[in-house]
Amino acid sequence: MGKFIFITGGVVSSLGKGIVASSVGRLLRSRGLSIFMQKLDPYINIDPGTLSPYQHGEVYVTDDGAETDLDLGHYERFTNQSLTKLSNITAGRIYQNVIRKEREGKYLGKTVQVVPHITNEIKEHIKKAAKTSGADVIITEIGGTVGDIESLPFLEAIRQIRRELKEENTLFIHNVLLPYLPTSGELKTKPAQHSVKELGSLGIQPDFIVLRSEKNVTKDIKEKIALFCDVNENHVFVCRDVDIIYEVVLEMRKQKMDDEICNHFHLSTPASNLKNWEALVQKIKNLKEEINIAIVGKYVSLHDAYLSVCEAIKAAGYFYNVKTNILWINSEEVNEDNVSLVLKDADGIVVPGGFGQRGTEGKIITLRYARKNNIPLLGICLGMQLMAVEFARNVLNLQDANTTEFDDKTQHPVIHLLPNQYKGIDLGGTLRLGAYDLELKSSSKVYPFYRHHPISERHRHRYEFNNNYISLFENHGMMISGINPKNKLVEVIELDNHPYFVGCQFHPEFKSRPNHPHAFFIGLINAVLNQKKRK
Ligand code: GLN
Questions:
Q1: For this structure, is 498 an active site residue?
Q2: CA 496 to chain centre
Q3: Residue 310 catalytic?
Q4: Which atom of ligand 1 lies nearest, measured to the CA of 352?
Q5: What are the pLDDT digits (tens) for 481-516?
C-alpha cells in the first residue's frame, strides 16, 4: 500500500487548496513518484452533474465518464495525468452505497451508523483508489471547510486511517487563511489557530500547515503559527497570491515542501526535475503579443463555469507565445443590433457548451456574425449544435430548424435525440459521458494539430446531430469532418470557406494541458494569428 496525503482547509472556503493539492501532485511526480489524486466532496448530491454551474462552477468529465468537481481539472492540468471515477466521491454517493448495502442485508441486522458504516465506506473508497492505481502516493483532498457538519464523517475516516497506518504512511496538510487587516496593517493568525484547534478536537493534528496570504509572511508569523499550532517551523508553508497559478508549484518547491514530504514518508527519490514547468512559467511571464478571445455564454458572470475552456484557450496562446485576454460576453445580452459592437474587439470567439434555451438566441446571432465576417470561431457541444441550427436556418433556409432540446415539434430537427434514446429515465448520470473515439478527416483544419492518433475525446451531452441532414449540409459547404467510427454519430462540423468555423460535439477543453494544448484550441489561435497578419 502506498503513502497517503490528506489535504484539508480551514477558516474560509475557496482557499485554493485544490491548487495546493495539485502542486503537491506535480512536485511528487517530478521526483519520479507515481501518484493518484482524489477529492471527497461532503455534499449530498450523488455527483455534481446536476448542480447549477452557479453553485460549483463547471462539471469536469473524466475519460471513464465520471461527472466531477472542477478541482479535478486542476489535478489533471498540473499533473498531466488522467483521472478516473475513483477520483471524486460525494457524501451522497457514500450514503447511497451504504443504504444499498443495508437493503441487501449486508450488515447482518446491525444498526447502521455514521461510525463505523459511513466512515468504513469512505475508507474503503480511499483504499480502493490506492489499490487500483498502485500509486506510490495517494493525495486526497477533503472538500469543504473544517467545522462544517457535512465534513465530520470524512475527517473521522482520515483520522482512523492515520491510526491504522501510522504516521510514517500518512500526512495531514491543513490549509488556512491569514487574513490581512488594513486598519492595523497586520496579518492575523488567530483564525488559523482556531481552525487547527477545531481539527484537533476531531483528533487530527496537522503535520504541515499552508498559510494562504495576500501579503508577505514574515518569519515571526511562521514561528507563531508553529508554536501555537504545534507543528515544526519548517512545516509551515506560505502560499502567496500569484498571478499565474502554475507558479504555486515552484513556490512550494522553493520552500522545500517536496523534501519535507519525502522526509516524512522516509522516501528516498531523486531531486525534483521541474525544467519543463519552469520553462512554462517563464514563458507565461514573457508573453508579448496580445489577442482577445470572446467567450459567449450564459454563465459568464461566474468564470469558474468555463474554467477548463478558459485554461485551454490560454494554453493554446502560450503555444504561440501570445497572451490571450478573455472577453466575457453574456449571450442573453447579444442581439442583432448590438452584435457588431459587442464583438468589435474579439479576434476569435468560443461558444461553449450548455444546457437549456436561455441565452441561445444570442449565441445564434453571434454564430451568424462570425460566419459572415470570417471571425475564427470554435463551437463546443451546445455551441456546435447551435452552429448547425444557425446554418440550417440562414444558409439552408430551413426557417424553423432547431434542436429538439428547445423545440420538439420543429419541422427540421437538425439536432435531436436518437430514436428510443433516454425515454423516461433520470436526468442525473444519463448523458453520453466520457471518452469515445473520433475519426477525423485529414482534410479537416484541425487535423494537422493532432499529435496523436487514434483520437479519443470526452463527451457530456444528450442530443446528437441528425444524420439525415449530412448531405444537405455538405452540399452547402458545412463539412462533416469528424465522426464516431463505431456508431457514425457526427463529432465535428466545419465550414469550408472560412478561416476557422469549427464545431465539436465533445469537450476538447478537458484534454488540454498547460504545456500540451489541445488541437481544437491551437487551430483557433492559429487562425486568429493568421487573420491578424492578413489585416
Ligand atoms: N444540451 C446539449 C445536449 O445535451 C449540449 C450539452 C453540452 O453542451 N454539454 O446535448
A1: no
A2: 32
A3: no
A4: 8
A5: 999 999 999 999 999 999 999 999 999 999 999 999
**CA 459–ligand 1 middle distance (angstroms):** 9
* Alpha carbons 55 and 302: distance in angstroms, whole number: 10
**Partners of 493 in the beta sheet?**
480, 503
SS3 at position 395: coil
For residue 58 the three cell numbers come to 463547471
Quote the CA–CA distance of 39 and 70 in Å, as a whole number. 10
Lookup: cell for 100: 444499498
111: left (phi over 0), alpha (psi -120 to 50) or beta: beta
Q: Please tell me the distance between residue 462's alpha carbon and the centre of ligand 1 in angstroms.
A: 6
Q: Give how far the C-alpha of residue 253 lies from the chain's centroid of Cα atoms, to the nearest Å.
A: 24
The mean of the pLDDT values for the chain is: 94
pLDDT digits (tens, 9 = 90+) for 351-396: 999 999 999 999 999 999 999 999 999 999 999 999 999 999 999 9
The pLDDT > 70 percentage for the chain reads: 98
Q: List ligand 1's pocket residues with C-beta within 6 A.
A: 353-355, 381-382, 405, 460-463
Q: How far is CA 367 from the centre of its chain?
A: 26
Q: Is the pTM of this model over 0.70?
A: yes
List the residue whose alpha carbon is closest to atom 6 of ligand 1.
461
Would you call 229 a catalytic residue per the annotation? no
Q: Round to whole Å and give the CA distance between 415 and 409.
A: 12
Confidence category of residue 426, pLDDT binned at 50, 70, 90: low
Q: How far is ligand 1, taken at its centre, from the CA of residue 81, in Å?
A: 26
- Cell numbers at residue 462, please? 444528450
Find the catalytic residue in 381, 412, 457, 491: 381
DSSP letter, residue 517: -
What grid cell was written down for 4?
Answer: 497517503
| Other CB atoms within 10 Å distance of the CB of residue 349 | 28
Q: 463 C-alpha vs ligand 1 centroid, how far in Å?
A: 6
